[in-house]
Amino acid sequence: MVDIFKRYVLDHAEVSEDEFAILESASHIRKLRKRQYLLQEGDVCRYHCFITKGLLRTYSVDDKGNEHIIRFAMENWWISDRESLVNGTPSKYNIDAIEDAEVLLFAKADMNMLMDKLPVFKKMISDILDKSFITSQNRINEVISSTAEEKYHNFVQRYPQFALRAPQAMIASYLGIKPETLSRLRNKR
Amino acid sequence: MVDIFKRYVLDHAEVSEDEFAILESASHIRKLRKRQYLLQEGDVCRYHCFITKGLLRTYSVDDKGNEHIIRFAMENWWISDRESLVNGTPSKYNIDAIEDAEVLLFAKADMNMLMDKLPVFKKMISDILDKSFITSQNRINEVISSTAEEKYHNFVQRYPQFALRAPQAMIASYLGIKPETLSRLRNKR
DNA sequence: GAAAACAATTGACAAATGTCAAGCGCCTCA
DNA sequence: TGAGGCGCTTGACATTTGTCAATTGTTTTC
């Protein structure tokens, strides 16, 4: 489990064994069962989370009780609600496990300490944020400019893992369409 | 023009007069006329741009020639295509002026130099990126979970300036709907 | 100052997507 | 092991949004 994280860090930053030990010592493992929350709407997000196993989702729930999936995340992805984490405000979102999962938690203060102590780690995290921003800009572009069918095909191509591992109703929710609509367009009208 | 930038920097970071002089010396001014491009699809984005005057937009153009506005930006906002800027790849987007505008340009290398030299400036820029990411996550949430009418009302409330200064057809484009649809829902069906 | 371009609206109709209800197969878990 | 729940599909119909064309008033441009 920690091995996964180790490989990830060594692949993304020039971190020595000793430095990695510092990272490891600041983390703790949490196991999640399918459907278990990692973060619940209204709670304050206190951890940066690195996924070592499983599939998770971030979603909101509207007035009518409909869920809307903001993003999926799996092994080697980070997940948290940055808005809540950075500002210390109650989260608008839920994060839960779609499959049984394992995550490494890094408390906010520990994370700040680690980034101060290890500039290469800080750089790695900043680069991830940069990429995340670019990704979400591109998603905005897609969601306002594509038809339901185009969105679905792009999704399958970009994220084949998610397409295989997430139930169709969740994919529909991610795309902003109804499960029935997705079912129909998959079976060509 | 530079005054606007100075006030902005002093409001957002603990920068001395001398340090500000360094920032200023790395910038150059560009004036844009309405409809003039700051960045054109296919070109590589080479500058971080700070807007001192006017209203700009970032947009994509699809196969059918339809424009889709990714974002608006005005005085005291930064604008660029980070994907192109960071990776040095041709941009998928266009940036142009909706009103006559003035921007301060900071070349990529200069910006990196400034961030190395002035940690408080680097912090300021990182914080902006962090906020931008949060904002785009929230926009994704909204765009997949709201009706056209809700999107419009939220837009007007969140960005009254843009609602007043941008033509309706552009607001529709930002919201991902047709101008006719926006016109109709504004005039209550 | 006239001609052209632009911005917004409206109507009639078409296409896309949502809603509700029913049905089917498969998994799971008590 | 069997009852219920879940995931997906399908049909009939409602609603929303898009398309195209015409109209009007306003701005831009020469």
UniProtKB/TrEMBL annotation, chains A, B:
Q: Which Gene3D superfamilies match?
A: Jelly Rolls (2.60.120.10)
**Where does the Cyclic nucleotide-binding domain lie?**
30-116
Give the signal sequence positions: none
Q: Which SUPFAM superfamilies match?
A: cAMP-binding domain-like (SSF51206)
Q: Which domain of life is it from?
A: Bacteria
Q: Which InterPro entries match?
A: cNMP-bd_dom, cNMP-bd_dom_sf, RmlC-like_jellyroll
The protein here is known as Crp/Fnr family transcriptional regulator
Which species?
Mucilaginibacter myungsuensis
